[in-house]
Amino acid sequence: PVLSTIRHFREEYEEHIREKKCRAGVCAGLVRAPCQSACPASVDVPGFISLVGEKRYADALKLHRERNPFAAACARICFHSCEEHCRRSSLDSPLSIRGIKRFMVEQEMIIQVPEVKENAKNAAKKIAIVGAGPAGLSCAYFLARLGYKPKVLEAAPRPGGMMAQTIPAYRLPREILAREVRMIERLGVDIECDKALGKDFTLESLKQEGYEALFLAVGAPDGLKLGLPGEEAEGVCEAMTFLRDYNIRGSVPVGRNVVIIGGGNAAIDAARTAARLDAESVTVLYRRTREQMPAYEEEIEEAEAEGVKLQLLTSPEEIIVEDGKVVGIRCKPMELGAFDRSGRRRPVAGEDADFVVPCDQVIAAIGQRVDLPLLTGSQSLNVQRNGYIATDALTKATSQEWIFAGGDVASGPSSVIEAVADGEKAAAGIDLFLTGKNNAFWREEKKVGTFFDPDADPVSYEREKQPLIPVERRRCNFDEVEQPWDEATAIRQAKRCLRCDYREEVHSW
Ligand SMILES: Cc1cc2nc3c(=O)[nH]c(=O)nc-3n(C[C@H](O)[C@H](O)[C@H](O)COP(=O)(O)OP(=O)(O)OC[C@H]3O[C@@H](n4cnc5c(N)ncnc54)[C@H](O)[C@@H]3O)c2cc1C
Ligand code: SF4
Ligand code: SF4
Fold this sequence. Notes:
The protein has three domains: 2-112 and 444-494, Fumarate Reductase Iron-sulfur Protein, Chain B, domain 2, CATH 1.10.1060; 120-221 and 370-438, FAD/NAD(P)-binding domain (3-Layer(bba) Sandwich); 230-368, FAD/NAD(P)-binding domain. The chain has 509 residues and is of the alpha/beta class. The strands form four sheets. It has a five-stranded parallel β-sheet, covered by helices on one side. Helices cover 34% and strands 15% of the residues. The protein has helices at residues 2-20, 28-31, 34-38, 45-53, 57-65, 71-77, 81-84, 97-106, 120-123, 134-145, 162-165, 174-186, 203-208, 239-249, 265-276, 297-305, 372-376, 408-411, 416-435, 487-494, and strands at 127-130, 151-153, 190-192, 213-216, 222-223, 236-238, 257-261, 281-285, 309-311, 314-322, 325-339, 345-349, 355-358, 361-364, 368-369, 403-405.
């Protein structure tokens, strides 16, 4: 049935092209594969997958890095929205695009630099980027490819943003990130750490120093407070500080019985970090159900496998304090009520009595924020209703002509690949602002050679999972949990692709 459905799909596809009287490749609705359209950075997914299928791993990675400098990081931590739109899922299950990517990046021994168009005029222009997270560094990468030599100013002691500060090393080993940051530096990008906007310099001072354009990419670095009585007690902190202290300073106080409040990825990262740092018990309190947790299901499953307990439909009401230290949390049991505006059933107070969860550490992971007035000073910028910076969707320009902004500081807390995409748009936007032209050559479509034979039957292999290290090997260390496939598995998986972007005139690259 799978094969006949695929044939049916192909017939429909060809019929569509005939009907529209357009040659394949000029019909806007069919030009891009759904996976590529769903990737915020527009990575050429079918292209790199087909190159992996041909064992042309270096070419595959080069094609990928045309749109995303953080291929190796994203191979580990991308939320892979591409897979949610993979057409193969209407037949059996989506391609494991991230899994194929992981195998691809493992094949790179010496990191390659992408195509750069040297340009003395551009190199002489002063461009500042504030924040060395995925948004700032991607902007620097694409500007450097146009011959600019941007300066990146970063408040933390190390570049990488959340990828270095909060995403745990068991999901993203730091040497993998450092390699991709070094690749960006090799393009002529100067990153200066320990330089904080609002403390060591201001937007105004950069303007006075002669910077002609600026990309503001400071993310949403602060954790939200709980707003509960008792939260100033010793032993209460928020997840951003907890994770940052461990990942940047190398140590963080961990209680014996730790409670994390929240249901997102930051809550699960904090819980799994505390479990690795030998807390006796780690409990995640969440006021909705498990299905409603914003954290990724695989992450929740792994947290549970590592001993983290979930206490669901539970709302924290008060931090109980003795001698200035936290000793427990008074909680209210919840149940599901009517649907709210997010389309989820709202948790409402249940009938049962409040109860206490004893603990000696509370970590709040209920959201993030950024203090914009503190950062922008006299160069105030228009903001959206949600408080984040208002930007042009295509160029990331702000209400101040010379300032561009992107990543979490403009979108609100989002994802690495959204930040990468914003960085790319800002680079093209800044170049347009400075030169009046669109020079983003990497956006030109590449036509890749392909193993794909339109008359061959598609393979019927099932989607496979990536191997994980056993749970007993995860205690007291931050070794990477997810492992890559072997070559045979990766190629088998690559060949599941239907090449939804297939066109007659496919040239070799
Ligand atoms: C715990 C956690 C886990 C996550 N897990 C994932 C995941 O698995 N996959 C995924 O795709 N996304 C994940 N995210 C979201 C993702 O990390 C962010 O959306 C992304 O990093 C945003 O990129 P950015 O460049 O806009 O900001 P950031 O990554 O926050 O980088 C901003 C940079 O600006 C610097 N900065 C801040 N203030 C100043 C200042 N005043 N002066 C100079 N520099 C400053 C910061 O130090 C930082 O280096 C996670 C987020 C968190 C908090
Ligand atoms: S970067 Fe993420 S969304 Fe884009 S193709 Fe890779 S896994 Fe998919
Ligand atoms: S089958 Fe291949 S080309 Fe089609 S959506 Fe999935 S990954 Fe993309």
